[in-house]
Structures are given as C-alpha cells and as structure tokens.
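Sample entry (927 residues):
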Amino acid sequence: MVIFCTSLLGLSLTGVAFEFYERASFRSSLVNQLTSDADMLSLNTAASLTFNDRRSAEDMLKALRVERHIVAACLYDSRGNAFSEYRRAGAGPTCEMTAGHQDGAQFQGDFLTLSRGISLDGESRGAITIISDLSELTTKMTRFREISALVLIVSLFATALVSKRLVNLITEPILQLAGLAERVSTREDYTLRASPAGKDELGKLVGSFNEMLERIQERDVALQGAKDELEIRVLARTGELQTEVNERTRAELHLQYSLKELKDLESALDQHCIVARTDRRGTITFVNEKFCSISRYSREELVGMDHRIVNSGFHPKEFIADLWRTIRSGQVWKGDLKNRAKDGSIYWVGTTIVPFCDAENKPRQYIAIRSDITAIKSVEEDLRAAKEAAEAASSAKSEFLANMSHEIRTPLNGVMGMTDLALGTELTPEQREYLDTVKMSADSLLTVINDILDFSKIEAGKIDLETIDFNLRDCLETSLKTLAIRADQKGLELLCEVAPELPELVRGDAGRLRQILINLAGNAIKFTEKGEVVLKVQVEESDAQGLKLRFTVTDTGIGIPKEKLQAIFDPFSQADTSTTRMYGGTGLGLTISSRLVDMMGGRIWVESEVGGGSKFHFTARLGTAEAKAISAEAIAPLDVLRTAKVLVVDDNPTNRRILEGMLGRWEMKSSSAENGVDALTKLSEAQETGEPFTLILMDMHMPSMDGFELIEKIRKRPGASAATIMMLTSAGHRGDAARCQELGVAAYLLKPIRQSELREAIGRVLGVRERVGAIPLITRYSLQDAGAPIASLHILLAEDNPVNQLLARRLLEKRGHSVVVAENGQGALEALEKEEFDLVFMDVQMPVMDGFEATAAIRKKEEPGGVHLPIVALTAHAMKGDREKCLAGGMDGYLTKPIRPQELDEVLREYLMRRAKTPEAQESTLS
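Predicted structure, serialized as tokens:
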C-alpha cells in the first residue's frame, strides 16, 4: 500500500506539472502567433490607413479566415475610430472589440485579445486588434487529461504487480529472522544462525543479529569457563591447605635431615663441578676433588684456610667488596673469577655462590659452585688482541691515507695551479696543446685520488653528511658548468631542466649532492659520442619533514648491457673490463655515488640498453630550508622582462623547452625555431604583423646554418636587425667574442646557462637598449664582476712550500689582491705584529709552528675584545674530520689543495662581501 500510494502521488504530481506546462506553452505560442499576424497586417494596412482605402484594408483582414482560431479583427485610425473589421462566421456577440490603448496581449475568459500600434515613417497611423478563442487549448487539455488518466491506471496496475513480488524480498528475510529469534528464545540455543541475505540493509540486519548471537554464545562459554575455573581453584586451594598442614607436620623431620641432604648434594656435584663450602667468615670447610685438581692443593691444605688462598690479586678491591656485599645480604652472586693455583699458574672459573641462612636470615655458610672456563677466556683474550690489532691497522691505514693525501695533493697543487697560470698567458698552439694535456692528466689524477679517498672513508664508516641551507638551482647549474668544456669538446649538448615547483632553498649536503651529479653527468659525457646529456630534477614526494627529489641523468651514449646494470655499482667494477676497453676510470665513482645516495635516504638505479643510451635515476631526501627573501629584482626587474617578445633559436628540442620554461616564469612571450631557416621565417612573420621580436636567444652550433651565419642574414634585413641578439654556446673558442662584437651581439654566454645568469644578462641587455654608442659585450666574466664588490684584500699567506707560495701569490695577485708571504706560523705572527691584514690563508702543516698553533695564538690576542681576523685553512688534508678540526681550532673557512680557482673565487667573494657590509653595520649601530 505504501508503494502504491507513493506511485499514485508521484504520477499525479507529474501529470499536473505537465498540464500546467502545456497550458503555459500553448498560451505563449498563441501570443507569438497573433503577434506575428498583427505585425504582418500592420505593415500591409499602413498604406490603406494613410490613403483612407477601406476596401484594401478589408481584403487584407479577410486573409485571417485561414486562421480558424481567430474570431475577429479590427483596424482603427489614428483617432481611435473603427476603420475596418473582420468577424468569423458564427462569432457571438460576446466578442467585442475596442481600440487598444497600448500594445499587448490580454486573456479574458475564453478569448485572447492582442493590440498593436501601426506607424509609417515613424508617424502613428492607427492600431489593430485581433481576438482569438481558446477552444483549441480546451480540446488539447481534455485530451491530455484522458491520456494522463490512462497512463496513471496502467502504471498503478503495473506497480501493484511488481511491488507484490518485490515486497517478498524484504518480508521473507524479516520473517525468517523473526522465526529464528523465536527458536533461540524457546530453546536457548545460541549456536543457531540466520542465513546470509546479501549486502543491503537486510543483510546488515541479519549480520548484526548473527553477531549478537555469537557474542551471547561467547559470553555463555566464558561464564561456563569461569565457573569451571572457580571450581578448580576451590579444589586447588583446598589441596594447598591440606599440603600446608602436612608440611608443618613434617617440618621438624625435614630439618633433621637437611644436613644429610646437603652432603648428598655435595657428593653428586663432586663428579661434575668444582665445589667448595665456607663458613660465614670465609674459612674453607669443604672442597671436592675437582677443586683440589684445578688448584693443585690437597684437601688437607685447603680445609681450615681462608678462601683468599686461591686469589690471584687480579680483581680490584671494589669488585671483591661488591661480591661480599651481595652474598651477605642473602642473595646469590654469579660471575667470573681469576684464581691462582699452588704452582703459580692462572685459571678462570665461572662461579655461583649461594648463601645458606639461619632463622634470622643471616648467612650461616656459603656454597661456591665453579666451572673451569680457562679455555673460553683464552679465546676471548685472543679475540680482543685481534680486535685491537685490527683497530690499530685501521688507524694506521687512516693515518697513511691522510699522509698520502697531503703528500700527493701538495705537489699536485703546484702542477695544476701553475698549469692554469701558464694557460692564461700567450702561448703557441703547440705549447697550449701540451699544457692542456698536462691539465687534463692532472684533473684525472685528482679524480682518481678523490675517489680512492672517498671510498676508503666510506668503507671505514668515516664519512658524514652535513646539513646546511643552500640554493638547489645554483648547485645543479654550477655542477654542470664544470663539465661544459668536456661536453663541447665532444660536440654534446649539456642541459639542465629543473621543475618549476622546486623551492629555491633546501637543506642538506650540497657538496656531496654536487659530487654525485658531477660523477653521473661526467660518466654520461665520457660514454656519449653525439647527442645530448640532460639532467632533470623533479619533486617525487613532499611532506612536513621535507622533500624527496628525483634526479635523472639521461644520455644518448653507448648504453649498458642488461647483465651489467647492477654490477656497475660494485666497487672497482665497470661495464667493460676487457684489456681493450676504450674508457678509463677506477670503477669507484658509481659505488661512491650509490653509498652517498643511501646516506641521503634515497636509492639509485639505471635504465639502459646497448646503443640506446642510459638513464641514471637517484632519489634523495632534502629538508625544507628556513624562509629567506630571495629576490633578483635589483639585477633584472620584472617590468623590464615582462611581455618582452623573445625568439629562441636552437636545434635541440630539450634546450628549447628549458629556455621557454625560464622565459615563461618571467612573463616573457616566447616563440622557438629549430634552425636558421625557420628563424628567418618567424622574424619575417613578426615584422609583417607589426609585432617584431625584442630579443633573440640563439645557439651557436646548428646544422646547415650556424649562429654567426644566421646573424649576418638577420643584419641584412632592415626590420629584423633592430632585435637584441644573445649568443649561447656550449664552450667558447678564441675569436668568438671578437666576432660577436663585430656582428653587434649583446651577450655571449656558455651553456648550460644558469637561470640567474640568463635573467641578469637579459635584464642588462634590455635595460640598455636605448643607450647611444657601443655597448660592451656581456660575458659570464662581466656578470661575475658585476655581482662582486669592486675591492681588493690585503692577504697574509702562511705557507712553507715554495711552489705553493708562488702559486697562491700569483692566483691572488691576478685577482687584484696584495699578498704577504710567511714561511710558517711564527712568521705569520710576526707579520701580524707589523701590519694589518683583511684575510689570512693558513697552511696547517708547517715547521717551527703549525697552523693550529698560530691560529690559537691569534685568537688569544683577540680575546680582550679585538677585531676578529678571518682565517681560512689552506691544506692538503682532506680526510674525514679535517674540516671540523680546522673550524674547531678557530679557523673560519676551509680550502683544500690542489686549489681550484672556482673555490678560491667563492672564498674571496664571501669575505669581500662581508667586508663591504661591515661599514654599513657599523653605521647602523652608531645611528
């Protein structure tokens, strides 16, 4: 009945709603139709009203005969008098027409009256009124109600048939459940269960009912178990009480036989253990044969003697005092004792001393049960000696590695540094080739040394990760920058793609991350002859603790066989181990990278196939750095870059995508071209549309037409020549800068270009476009010079090695700084007495006075409140802890040999900027 009534209500509401809708729709349609007729008649009868032509007006009104629902129509002149009218045959007197005062439709009873004004050339000529009956609506509504009634009857009949069957699906499980409940109540049998009824509401009801029966059954079982347990406990307690009564009865007899049982126990132990008994003062009252055998004393010699007769004197007084304190309190003592036999030999015994107490709980005598463990102790001594020997060997190995690092790095510093200085002078091509070979060999040697030292430190567990805030993008871009020349020598594109959602600052070990990236990218360059090497970084996970980043180094090189994919991460392993292998290396780089990745909480793996290139992936967890304001607006304001139209010309699609991504983040409008022909076409199209390009970023090395050829063609076009051109190249060659200046190129930068460098360069070239005269060519050096304070430092160099003195002096003087050299720490102190210095580079290992002693002396003089003098350690010691040791010794920085110019520049730039800020800080303090 519920389903039937609900269906009736729903169908009735639907029918009523459709009837209202049909009535409204019909009325609206009728009004639209009459409006159309009136508008047509207004146009046709305007002339008749103007010329007072009643006959033509009547003829036009008679055309309404085709509309059976129109009852009458009347045409009125401008004064409101009837001019002409039409009435349908049989129209009754109830249909009266009056001139309408305003345009519109009005429903009155069974009629619809529509009035419209008539005008000609903007002047009112009269009005027209049309009356239509609503008989068609009445007929349509009657037919609609008949159909609705029929649908309602058929639907209710179908609903009754279907619901009668469907209701059983609900009632049958309920009736079954009711029957089951009655049986459970009658029989009190809670093991009965209802049949499952599906996963709907009834299924949940049946499941809940079964669960309730199961809980009741469990409760009954628990109650029965508790009842049985209670009965057992009552019986047990009754037995215990009976036992206590019996024991009290036999207590006196047991006391009498206790001494006899003790002697029997001693006799039994005599066959297996070393047994002795003493009184409360420690006097021996009994020993067995095994005690006599191991101590070399006879029983007569032992009985009556103090227990200390077998003491070796090995154990300290505190140990013996703790032993007596334990057994005198009535507790059992267990431990190992070192004793001395009659003949002076030493033996070890595992000992358990049991006190036997009197009625007052005071020890009356002690039983000591021992076992011979001399052989076990001998083995332990051998193992301990072996462990100490191994630790000594490890310490000697670490010391040897530290000394070897120092002894190798010191002369290598001279070789590499002097080679760099020589390469900066005027040389013949032959001399430059020789020196380039020397530098390459020295770099390879330093890489081998670093790999061996790092692997040794990792194997010994003596390498830790530091946690500092650093700029992730700068770390990635500077890492690849060091490999740019190697990539260009092989004609490879070296690219860096960083996901835009990566934060600028992260927390972790930037040095170790850079080591992994240089290792993987360096390997990719080594094993790739043509194509590209791409570093891609993206966020894999992000949470409150930090980020999990995924780094991917992709190359188009020779690939790795599948059977070698895992072995390449093993120490001293390479994919090609034959005697004819083409590529060198220690086989330690990937092993070190793998261990470092593990320490960073990530993993490393490779995807590769022979001839299809390789993809090295690794993940690393980095923390979230403290929020700091990072702004480059002073270098390249956004209003200079925003909406500037840029054309990117590069044959490498990955590089185009990276550059367009950078430009898009700065709100610049960019287009790209893959070759010179395509670039010229886009320049022409932009010129024709009146929106020429403001800037062109151009690759130098492209097939068919290189960058210089393209620039020459652009300069010959009058419209396109106004665009600012920046040249990007994988590595610079002699004469390129001069050629760029000749062709009017604004900037000449090396790839992979850092985002900050590109933004600064674009900002500078676009910011000076309106200047008159020659604009200096912007290079990476001019960008660095612009970013560093223009100043020089007065530096004290404490170094005992003549080659390193000469090298360090030349490197510092070449950078515009003045240098004073001291041969040892004592000389450095004497130099500081004579004059003031801005910075000290302090060698650690020197004769007379080393760097640590000299630094301590300098810091001691500063204690009363003197000015803090920055001291940077300059050392060939690069083992674990050396950096920390230098900083703990009072030094402010740490620079290892061989001296790398980039690292030296970073140190100098830091102290120049620090010195530049000092006057500002002092001024703010005074104000």
